UniProtKB/TrEMBL annotation:
Compositional bias (Low complexity): 319-336
Organism: Isoptericola chiayiensis
Superkingdom field: Bacteria
Protein name: Family 43 glycosylhydrolase
Entries under InterPro entries matching the protein: Alpha-L-arabinofuranosidase, Glyco_hydro_43, Glyco_hydro_beta-prop_sf
Amino acid sequence: MTDHAQVAPNPIVLQRADPHVLRHDGQYYFTGSYPAYDRIVLRRAERLEDLQAAEEVTVWTRHASGPQSHLIWAPEIHRVDDAWYIYYAAAPNDHGTVDAPSENETFNHRVFVLECTAADPLTGEWVERGQVDTGWESFALDATTFVHGGHQYLVWAQEDLEVYGHSNLYIARMANPWTLATPAVELTRPEFDWETKGFWVNEGPSVLIRGGRVFLTYSGAATGIDYAMGVLTADADTDLLDPASWTKSVEPVFVSDPSVGQYGPGHNSFTETPDGETVLVYHARTYTEIVGDPLWDPNRQARAQRLPFDADGNPVWGTPVPDTRPTPTTTEVLPPSGLAHDLEEAAL
């Protein structure tokens, strides 16, 4: 992808996987998986390039025990009906279950919701609205939400014990931001070669509505070099709860690019520039050799680039842009304050 895709110095935030950016009232709100997986953090800035230096505020921490005591993953912040909501996954322990039908263990996460009715989500009180009842109990994570046609929808990843693999993607309409109004409908399961490398995974959904169509991106495969993004597409005026309304890409649309040192791009979200251009936000690593358990390697950095569209309104996904900021080489979880400046000084 050419230099016109550059929208801010990358990475936009260091050591934050599963990045989610919401633009609201001229401000960018950022959250993502904290490397210790023990809290939910927010930061805010007027420009994407200022997010790394922005103050990071912890708005929620894991419980001492119980279903929200371990592995706090992939928070997303959304604005629905004049309130703020954070959707996240949490588990009662830090290991998987051997009851899964696949050869590899899955974890024990469920989807939970926080609500804040204050004007400022960084200083306001966050209230737990509890677990989202998706209709059955199994590994569930990566919930995202969108409002379309006057209805709120939830899309998430969950394991079906009757289906080989770790997670499929489901959609449902919501009665309120923490309660489903309709049964879950499966939209996609891992089936193509690119989705089943290492792990059989469809996860990390995100929704973009543009030009009369709904683009639902997701990520597949294990989280190393094979991790990549796919897309489902539907006409915006069709029944989004009907799987027949959606067309799935056979090939991935956004993949590793060794020529610029970007590996495993995925778990994306969408935001926009001040003048309304679509921005693709995602995480990636700059190396492929990981020492120890990849789960605890903190160096999936949050990145952003413009997403152009062709004359027919189709996204031109391109490939990850190269870094223009130094990135950590240590596997230590580094403090956010002054980190970008320290790295830049060290690189001189």
